[in-house]
């Protein structure tokens, strides 16, 4: 396949990438299964260094026993650890989940706060988790969720030269319209899973290849 890469400004390329992703993944949404903001918070904490698929296998039993902040805050730590063990780093995750829920109960009336600074005060919650909870739990767009897929693809696509998630987020926020910050994250995650994989990106079937300075296309005549 022959390809001609467009010479465009970084901001224009970002908008073209966004439009292409919206066309490719029109139904893309958060992959985690949850019913309430606190369940979304817990599922997102569990997703660290773990697949969403695995988290979704664990949370039904977890939430059946401990469905809300109060029950999670008062759960026996050992029980939590057993229920979430397969997600990895289960001791630290159980500690953070319980600490976050205890603070939600004691300081926020049992409800997940809807402000970034308050979310960031919870144990185990950094900007990635806070952005997911605000966007999908409350429809509030305050940033770009930067996970491993977003980090990898944003670099490959030439949208950032940074490696720190906070700096990557800052770069993406300057290139994309605020209403589309989370739309971009969700769709780039889908693309990272399906096409632009970590070990072997499939550039030959990538619909973003003409916009990607890292694309390696095998020419055919």
TrEMBL record:
EC class: lyase
Swiss-Prot/TrEMBL keywords: 4Fe-4S, DNA damage, DNA repair, DNA-binding, Endonuclease, Glycosidase, Hydrolase, Iron, Iron-sulfur, Lyase, Metal-binding, Nuclease
EC assignment: the record states 4.2.99.18
Which cofactors does it use?
Answer: [4Fe-4S] cluster
One Pfam assignment: HhH-GPD
Described by its record, this protein's role is as follows: DNA repair enzyme that has both DNA N-glycosylase activity and AP-lyase activity. The DNA N-glycosylase activity releases various damaged pyrimidines from DNA by cleaving the N-glycosidic bond, leaving an AP (apurinic/apyrimidinic) site. The AP-lyase activity cleaves the phosphodiester bond 3' to the AP site by a beta-elimination, leaving a 3'-terminal unsaturated sugar and a product with a terminal 5'-phosphate.
The record, for CDD domains, names: ENDO3c
Q: Which InterPro entries match?
A: DNA_glycosylase (IPR011257), Endonuclease-III-like_CS2 (IPR004036), Endonuclease3_FeS-loop_motif (IPR003651), HhH-GPD_domain (IPR003265), HhH_base_excis_C (IPR023170), Nth (IPR005759)
Per UniProt, what is the name of the gene that codes for the protein in this document?
A: nth
| Organism the protein comes from | Gloeothece citriformis (strain PCC 7424)
PANTHER family hit by this protein: A/G-SPECIFIC ADENINE GLYCOSYLASE/ENDONUCLEASE III, ENDONUCLEASE III
UniProt protein name: Endonuclease III
